[in-house]
Write a structure and sequence with these properties.
The protein is of the alpha/beta class and 381 residues long. It is 61% helix and 13% strand. It folds into two domains: 209 residues, 3-Layer(aba) Sandwich (Rossmann fold); 125 residues, no CATH class.
């Protein structure tokens, strides 16, 4: 994954935004308390800002939706809403400190808005759901300034009225619950004309607080099992998103490991094939069976060597030369250990030529895989 970077916040010279770049997408390394501080700075600026969240499903969607991907990159605050994203960030140079989910702190947030004198506009879901959500909030924060409540199912003609209503009410904070990526696209399209300091996509937040959708217990949410709870509740609707989607996300997170497994396997059998083709010159070689038996051990050794030299997780980014040197060291260590393993497995009678050739090919394949990965990251920045 790409390195963490910092850059100035739009409209806020001198402020820095610490970013974890994951699959070319910027995710703020931020805590819940810092989100509140950021919201306050946006309100004080008076300029429109867009906030959105990312979880495994959102990241998967971004690979298939270029418009949504562009919006993520343009947004002012992007926070990790899913534990899967937080865990995956630990494979980058600087991990995300915690999961931020507005559903976990909506009431404290609304109480904070009341204390600051900020008004909140609720847009999304069905009318009765949105109103029920606001009623539940007002039971605990009765003096919250509610600028407006509108449903998220509107016609183009009704859209004009909604935009006009928001413009006239001038809320400091607009919460939009239309689902990903519809809410992000709608907010980006109308961000400037809405002219709301904080335009925040909140997904199914209204449904949760209105009681339409049950939330997982805290222990499941804090341990990254909320997806399992929702899958149990709605298996017919959620199986593709969570079963296939989560597997796809995991494969993307540890893609380099998979690529190196393929590279090491290819190098091992390509080395055997090359040696076999030279049998007339170099003498006979054993049949393929001993090499098939040995290859899982050899591949695991290569992955271990790559991990040992920080090719999957490192404290700081490596430039091209440093990475080449790390791959070279991993290849050399892999050759030494492979040669030792081949000696210990002498009953298999593995050829030295194959072991050495596999090491050379593995170095070439790893260099090629890192180059392709770098090009992919550059393309998606």
């Amino acid at each position: 994954m790409a390195p963490v970077t910092t850059h100035s916040l739009p409209g806020h010279p001198g402020e820095s935004r610490l970013i974890c770049s994951m699959f070319g997408l910027p995710i703020d390394r931020i805590t819940t308390g810092q989100v509140m501080d950021r919201v306050e700075s946006y309100v004080k600026s008076g300029k429109p800002h867009q906030i959105l969240y990312l979880n495994a499903h959102c990241i998967n969607r971004s690979f298939d939706d270029d418009e949504y991907r562009a919006i993520i990159k343009q947004s002012d605050l992007v926070y990790a809403d899913g534990m899967g994203v937080v865990w995956a960030s630990h494979l980058t140079h600087h991990p995300i400190p915690e999961r931020v989910n507005i559903g976990d702190f909506l009431i404290p947030f609304c109480r904070w808005c009341y204390e600051k004198g900020y008004s909140v506009y609720f847009l999304g879901s069905e009318s009765d759901i949105a109103r029920r959500c606001v009623e539940m909030i007002q039971e605990q924060v009765p003096d919250l300034k509610v600028a407006g409540i509108r449903n998220g199912y509107f016609t183009p003609a009704e859209e004009k009225d909604i935009i006009k209503d928001i413009q006239e009410k001038r809320p400091e904070i607009l919460l939009v619950g239309m689902g990903v990526p519809q809410q992000e696209k709608w907010l980006r399209e109308h961000l400037q004309e809405l002219n709301v300091p904080v335009a925040w996509g909140v997904g199914a937040l209204f449904e949760y607080y209105a009681g339409k959708v049950s939330r997982a217990p805290y222990w499941m949410r804090s341990n990254g099992l909320e997806w399992l709870y929702r899958l149990i509740l709605e298996p017919g609707r959620m199986w593709k998103r969570y079963l296939i989607g989560n597997i796809l996300f995991i494969m993307r997170v540890i893609a380099l490991v998979f690529i190196d497994i393929i590279a090491a396997t290819s190098a091992w059998f390509a080395a055997y094939g090359l040696r076999y083709s030279l049998s007339d010159w170099l003498g006979p070689i054993n049949d393929l069976k001993p090499y098939v038996i040995a290859f899982p051990v050899i591949v695991l050794l290569w992955i271990f060597c790559s991990a040992w030299f920080g090719l999957y997780h490192r404290k700081k980014p490596l430039n091209e030369y440093q990475e080449t040197y790390a791959i070279l060291k991993a290849s050399f260590l892999g050759l030494m250990i492979s040669a030792s393993a081949a000696f210990l497995m002498k009953g298999l009678d593995l050829g030295r030529t194959v072991v050495v050739t596999a090491a050379v090919l593995n170095f070439v394949f790893m260099m090629a895989s890192r180059k392709m990965t770098s090009l992919f990251e550059i393309k998606n920045k």
